[in-house]
Design brief:
homodimer, 220 residues, Tetracycline Repressor, domain 2, 2 domains, 10 helices
């Protein structure tokens, strides 16, 4: 963990060691997210429930997104994948997004936990609600903002996400072959153009090297 | 139900009425699918477990796919959606597939049960295993066959499916707006070109009317 200015420890339980405090905050975060959802919970309300000062929460966790990752026990940060993909030209955003997701999911440390978290997100109940709000706020909104002020930026972000989510489902959850064993480069060459097309309506979709022989052409 | 030649009733339990027999067959099918999976179970093994003649199973259910739909209690037949989409030119297969899925899912009689079935399919256990095999055999293989003898027909079918599955996830499961409320026509105009591109590498992807202003163009 990075060194930081020492936070006030006013609210810290006496005699508790570092791990105890962190676990206490996490338990409080899980309870707050469960009761109030991702948006309804705040660092302040989590600190209050844990009986610590809000600055102590910030000492251990950068933000709410970091708390979500710890609460669902997934060392995967979709918000960071998106933030990282957003750096760079919009014309290649589709590829960067897809590559970031593939790289993260294919890490052996991540895959089982990420699969479990996705299954939770698909179900119902407090965890599903929290992850739903988290995805909407930290992924969809950010992606849409980067697409500028198109009236349909939100929709474009969702359609791009739908293609990425679909690849996750077929590759990691259903594990259909050959997709489950394909290299990242192959997947990117096949799928990134579709993601990019959703995002900006541009890209090398018709110029790709993987274009097969076709029976007839609608495109001139 | 269509009239057919009267099957032999040798194995039919005496005194049981039509509903009893059907329920008995369904219970046997659920047990067989659970123990042996979709591919491992057969009409014959289901009949044997139910204590009826195989012809009686065929009297009530067209095929294994029909039994799956009844076992998971979903009045949705993905195998029929695909079969129906496969009729007609391959150049418009993407649109027919997407439209078929949207029309089926948006039926109020289908949506809750289909959502529950998808959640089961994503989980683990016998139901997940059965649905996984069912999807692979009845959807992926059929779709790939229609794409001809491209070496990568299986992969193309999976990538097309990934886009369709992704739309299901974002529209029906996560229910993100605006996608959750979009009309079928709007979704088709946005998504079918990507599905079609996965299938055949052709289509009006760059000629679409929804193409927004772009910052720069990679396509000449």
């Amino acid at each position: 963990m990075e060194e930081r200015a020492q936070p006030r420890r006013r609210g810290r339980p006496r005699g508790a060691n570092r791990d105890d405090t962190k676990a206490r905050i996490l338990a409080a975060a899980a309870a707050e997210f469960g009761e109030h959802g991702y948006e309804g919970a705040s660092i302040r309300s989590i600190a209050r429930r844990a009986g610590v000062d809000p600055s102590l929460v910030h000492h251990y966790f950068d933000d709410k997104a970091a708390l979500v990752a710890e609460v669902v026990a997934v060392p995967l940060r979709p918000d960071r994948i998106v933030a990282s993909a957003l750096e760079g030209p919009v014309d290649e955003l589709g590829e960067r997004l897809l590559r970031g997701v593939l790289t993260a999911w294919d890490s052996p440390a991540v895959r089982p936990a990420a699969t479990a978290a996705l299954r939770s997100a698909i179900g119902q109940g407090p965890v599903a609600r929290m992850l739903h709000e988290f995805l909407r706020r930290e992924i969809m909104h950010r992606l849409a903002s980067r697409l500028g002020d198109h009236a349909d930026a939100e929709l474009r972000a969702e359609l791009a996400a739908s293609q990425v989510v679909g690849v996750i489902m077929v590759r990691y959850i259903l594990a259909f072959e050959p997709l489950a064993s394909l290299s990242h480069d192959e997947i990117v060459s096949r799928v990134a153009p579709a993601v990019q097309w959703h995002l900006t309506g541009t890209g090398p979709v018709l110029d790709t090297a993987v274009r097969p022989a076709k029976n007839s052409a609608h495109d001139e």
